[in-house]
Amino acid sequence: MTDGANAALVEVLLRHADDNTILGQRLGEYISSAPELEEDLAIANGALDHIGVAMHLYEYAAEIAGGDASVDGYSMRRNEREFTNALIVEQPNTDFAHIVARSFLFGVYQKLLWEQLSRSSDERLAGIAARALKEATYHVTHARRWVVRLGDGTPESHARMQTAIDEMWRFTSELFEQPDIDSVLIESGVVFDITRERAKWDAAVDDALEEATLVRPEDPYQATGGRLGRHTEHLGHLLAEMQWLQRTYPGASW
Amino acid sequence: MSYDVPLAEGESVEEISVDSDQTTGWQLWEVFMRPKRGLAYTHCGSVHAADAESAVLNARDAYTRLGGTASLWVVPSSAIHASDDPTSMFEPADDKPYRHPTFYEIPDEVGQL
User: What is the CATH number of the domain that holds B85?
Assistant: First the structure.
């Protein structure tokens, strides 16, 4: 591949790895606070799935980038502006409904993404995506059940679920942005046009919202900037906690 | 006991603290796992869940993470009726070795019986 294509591939890998790192960390923060022990386990499993995928993507990116690039370097020693995760994954765990809404709306996107990338002409990326697709399918099943259960539950759970969907909604259009740098990889079949998947996302989300007796939000404002490193105020706090150990004791390992 | 849940604006801890046995009211389910097709299901533990499908998901997360599972059953714990008094139930069989067909040789090819 050309240098340009390599640089683009590193950017794509980091983008998706960052999504998984940040969501994994967010879910990890919630462990011990779920309504039941069983739910703690489910959330912890999901968090570990995300961190596992991130590790594989960072490893691949570090190999292409060469030099002193490493998994730990990418995850633990980059600053807020260097993370290119989507804004939705860094949103706080306001309550259980927010966690479910975030996992569901993002999970449906991620499932479509992995479906695409499992057909990548880059075999290693295709392999990572195929494995991640199985995990994402489960994440969506799990989150969707909660969206329906809470939405079509008591007046209290319905109201909280609707609020959570409403608050996460403004971060959903960003998921279907295609940065310009991807074009060289789209030509060679390494990645695909994600904008084409939007209709499938809409259909899957509408289907769940209807079953959950929830209203699809009409929020004309859609936030953007995550893919360019411009984040909401929440990411810095998350990184401060996540990176504390490597920042304090650089290179620590065990 | 109280749970550490985030508070909404204007909400107080007292309002959302509830007794532990009233937090969710989830039912208990017994979990049976089959390691591969053809083998029998064996009991591997129990989970709390609000309904059967959630119980399958919870059982998946609690018991199958290390791999080696082909399928799961979940059964409401209340549906299980257990035996009682081992003295009269099982001990009478302990001193009757003649009931064991120990004189058969089982060929290796038979595998799992």
Answer: 3.10.20.520
Buried b (16+ CB within 10 A) or exposed e, A150-182: bbebeeebbebbbbbbbbbbbbbebbbbeeebb
pLDDT at B96: 82
- Please give the mean pLDDT across all residues of chain B: 80
pLDDT of residue B7: 56
Q: Tell if the CB–CB gap between B61 and A96 is shorter than 8 Å.
A: no
Residues 135-174 of A with CB under 8 A from B: 138, 141-142, 145, 149
What global pTM score does this model have? 0.85
Q: Is residue B93 part of a domain?
A: yes
Task: Tell me if A38 and B50 make a contact (CB, 8 A cut-off).
Answer: no
* Of residues B28, B21, B25, the one with CA closest to residue B76: B28
Chain B residues whose beta carbon lies within 8 Å of the beta carbon of residue A32: 4
Closest alpha carbon to A124 in A75, A67, A72, A58: A58
Using a CB-CB distance cutoff of 8 angstroms, which residues of chain A are in contact with residue B4?
32-33
Number of domains in chain B: 1
Note whether residue B1 is domain-resident.
no
Q: Is residue B3 part of a domain?
A: no
Q: What is the mean pLDDT of residues A20-36?
A: 94
What residues form DSSP beta bridges with B28? B48
- Any residues with CB less than 8 A from the CB of A128 and at least 6 apart, and which? A53, A56, A57, A60, A117
Residue B52 resides in a domain: yes
A:21-60 residues touching chain B, CB 8 A cutoff: 32-33, 35-39, 41-42, 45
Residue A253 has which token pair?
Answer: 């390992």
Domain containing B92 equals 18-110
Inter-helix orientation angle A96-117/A3-30, to 10°: 150
